[in-house]
Sequence to fold (430 residues):
Amino acid sequence: MIPWLLISFFVLLFFGVPIAMSLGLAAMGGILFLDGGNIVTIAQRMFEGMNSFALLAIPLYTFAGFTMSKGGISDRLMNFCYSIVGHIYGGLAHVNVLSSMIFAGISGSAVADTAGVSGMFMPTMLKQGYSKKFTVAVTAISSTIGIIIPPSIPMVVIAGICGLSTGKLFLGGIIPGIMCGIAQMIVSYFMAKKEGVAREPGHFSMGPVLKGLWESWPALLMPIIIVGTIMSGIVSPTEAGVIAVVYGLFAGGVIYRELKWEDIKFAFCETVRVSGRIFIVIGAAKLYTVMLTTAGFDKWMANTMLSFSTNPTVILIMILLLFFIVTMFMESIATLTLFMPILYPIATSVGIDPIVMSVLITVVIGIGLVTPPVGMCIYVACDLMDIKVGEVLPTLMPFICATLVCIALMIAFPQLITLPTLLMKTGVAG
Fold:
């Protein structure tokens, strides 16, 4: 059955069939014609994959992100970030990165950041003399921080699949997200010097910082509320998503008074579209994974990997390489739903910390979002600036290398991931 599942899936994918349909049709063929199952079995398996309380956080954080982005956050957030890092050489690139780090604590989506706050800033960078290649590269790579710093949609998916604490995954992503942001700023500094971009006028002053803080504090408060309530054990990460939705509506509609009924309708429609696509992929991938497991693919994978080494670090690197390669060609949520149930038992059997592995996988998936042929963030950024992906890749490579250095540091020092999780109280289930 394994040859049928693999060949049929890749053939469908080759002919341009959407990932969810490819997974579902390949699995349905295996169930109906090779395994003797029926339509009821297919529906039950797909529902099992989507029936998770943890996954309920996906539409909640998505809706909260849309309401905040439409509720007057963008300009205020940019001004605040400019007051902090705008005076540094390559200031606008640093503003792009810092705003992505802050917006990451609101949306949980990399693509939303590319098309939203960071994407809106690209014309300003072009006017100030930044090249299209540099502008697109820094916008695309900085948006990947959106899935590392909490809340994070991929982390919610991992928690739902593996039964891990969503709260611990969220906290584990804080330091790695900050590390990646700093690494991107360092690269931006040297690339701005290489391009000869004019330095922004002025110098650091507390006056503009305090003014920007006063104007943007409602937006800055959201990630603090999310992380704070989770760490204190008051609510679960999913329940924190409800708080984020209510606060997003309050901040945009009452405090900023810029959130209109049309914006709320847009947020609802986009949340349904984005969440629906994710859940369909999760359900289809669950069905496909069950068939692979029934056929013994998980045992073959375990025997193959463990035949090379049983060293936890080596196995971890192999898992990360697998995700690095696969996410270049497959949508990230489908990759997680497909491979995590298979690789998670292998990792835990050799003593790999599941929180460390999951956070590292999330960072690696971020690289997949900016590498063709499937990298959504790089395609969205290139489309906004009307430039071909191939022209941007050479400029993007130093940023990718900087992320790989961060990953290497996290592998060498896993405490960078686990330290914040020790602060979490266990009063509420993750």
Q: What stands out?
A: The mean pLDDT is 86. The CA atoms of residues 171 and 421 lie 5 Å apart.
